[in-house]
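Thread: Newbie trying to understand structure tokens

Hi all, I'm a second-year student working on a class project, and my supervisor (Dr. K.) asked me to get a predicted structure for one chain before our next meeting. I've only ever worked with sequences, so writing a 3D structure as a token string is new to me. If someone could post the tokens and maybe explain what I'm looking at, I'd be very grateful. Here's the chain:
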Amino acid sequence: MDQPTRTLADQIDRLARHHRVPESFVESIRSSFERKGISLAEDAGPYLPILEETFARHAQVTAATARSREGLRRLDENFRRLADGWRRQLERLREVKASLEEQRARIEANTRRLREELAGRPAARPGRPFPARPAARHPGPGRGSARVPRSFLPPGSFPVPGPDDPS
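---
Reply by user tm_fold:
Sure, no problem. This is what the structure looks like when written as tokens:
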């Protein structure tokens, strides 16, 4: 049984439905044949492989374009998120900077105040950061409480009371 001859117009319409291409693309294919002087009523047999490849490639390019657009949209969203994060981080850094400047100003004010307070006091002796204190008096031998614990004595010795020790 012979198949009925399919015209170019029929095959173009069938491929357009199959690949779901826009009408503008279908019209450009039709006009390409007409510009070459090929009637759309002719048998599509010799042109069928190139028509199928053309429609298939158009569908692939359309799908790749859609994926690229989606990728660009996601990339744009990620850049927006990144920019928001950087803005928040910059704001936090500005707050820290303001806090540090405030602390520095307080430290400088306290330093000035302390210098002014110290300016009225007598200067400490060179080499000593603080005024000298009187030496602490520790009772030594012969002053009444110079008892040495037995643990400090060498083995085999014993303490002998001195002349100032109470008997």
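A couple of things are worth pointing out once you decode it. The CA atoms of residues 20 and 143 lie 116 Å apart. The first helix runs from residue 8 to 19. Feel free to ask follow-ups in this thread.
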